[in-house]
Amino acid sequence: MRVVHVDNLQIRRYGRLKVSTGRKLFHGMIRNNWRVCEFSERDIARYEAPLGIRTLGIVKANKRLVETCANFVPDLVILGHCDMIRNETLARIREVCPQVKIAYRNVDPLWEERNVARIRERMHSCDGLFVSTGGDALKQFCTGKNVVAFIPNPTDPAVEDQQNFAKSAFERELVFCGVGNPTDDRYPLVRDLHAEFANEMRFDSFGMHGKAAVWGQGYDAVMASSKMGLNLNRFEGWPLYSSARISQMMGNGLLTFLWDQGEMRRFFSDDQAAFFKGKGDLVKQCRAFQADDARRQAVAEAGHRHYHTHFCGARVAAFMADVTLGRELTHPYIWQDEIYR
Fold first, then answer.
1. Distance (Å, rounded) from C-alpha 103 to C-alpha 76?
2. 242-299: pLDDT as tens digits
3. pLDDT tens readout for residues 111-135
4. Residue 13 DSSP code
5. How far, CA to CA in Å, does 121 sit from each of 22, 87, 104, 287, 310?
6. Are the CB atoms for 107 and 244 separated by under 8 Å?
7. Lowest mean pLDDT across 44-58, 136-150, 216-230, 261-275
8. Which of 26, 49, 182, 297 has the lowest tally of Cβ within 10 angstroms?
């Protein structure tokens, strides 16, 4: 299969890369033996901008995407968060490649109205929409001509390349990475945990309460040197939603704590992740796993194996292609009941 993948390749970050869903999906496409042409709209717009005028660069990038599709003749175009690409451009791509199908993925939360607006902007121009929240909220994006589905945050063995479940020496026992503000569900919890564990175990949080966030190699180093991790969203309870943090922690073999909201038990058992119902329960479980390293290793290893099996980039990319192209599902996806028409 021939695919044009439109996403931000982060060329101008010069190695200080943020963990990228698009990059892991690209790896998955290659692992599926697809022929993939990447198109980095932000970098093309900057490169093509006459006299550095951004607006002119955007116009040229849209023309270059049409040219790319005309030359490459894809079966499928997969769009990431590429807001510079206009729907008129997608219509033009259909003119030059009548057989093409177009998919759009969005892994930002639906509690952000501007993100809902982004999805609505694409819903009439794409054959498939894929969102990292499940449930009835996806039905609002159905037009009668498209298909809308949940996708999990993918992992990839070339990105999440650690096996912390097999390690015994760490710089910290517990970690949380994520920016936020006092209105978030997680903000007071993280503050209270620092006080709770101050003289008991090392708990590091990055991105709030005065501690700088970490990116790139610094983030990779934190993941590689942490025993247990907190998967805390800004707001909990949205069906199946998690930030990409869950793929980074479970994919690297950290014992991962999940707030017991949002229906994640549909995907994970107590033998694969540590579910908690509130601060008291979380504190109790942290202490229990800290005292029983064999159990910590067993649960973390099972979660790591489960996540890499079912939520690898190759499988998530295959699901997007199966659903968008309307073909028989090529895998027994454990989220395949989250397809809406």
1. 7
2. 999 999 999 999 999 999 999 999 999 999 999 999 999 999 999 999 999 999 999 9
3. 999 999 999 999 999 999 999 999 9
4. G
5. 20, 8, 11, 47, 30
6. yes
7. 44-58
8. 182
Cβ neighbours, 10 Å, residue 43: 16
| Distance (Å, whole) CA 104 – CA 114 | 16
Rounded Cα distance between 318 and 301, Å, is 25
Both structure tokens of 306: 């489960």
Q: Domains in the chain, please, with CATH?
A: 2-154+312-340 (3.40.50.2000), 164-310 (3.40.50.2000)
C-alpha pair distances (Å), 278 with each of 1, 2, 47, 140 = 47, 47, 49, 32
Q: Determine contact, residues 268/258, Cβ cutoff 8 Å.
A: yes
- Whose structure tokens read 């920016």? 179
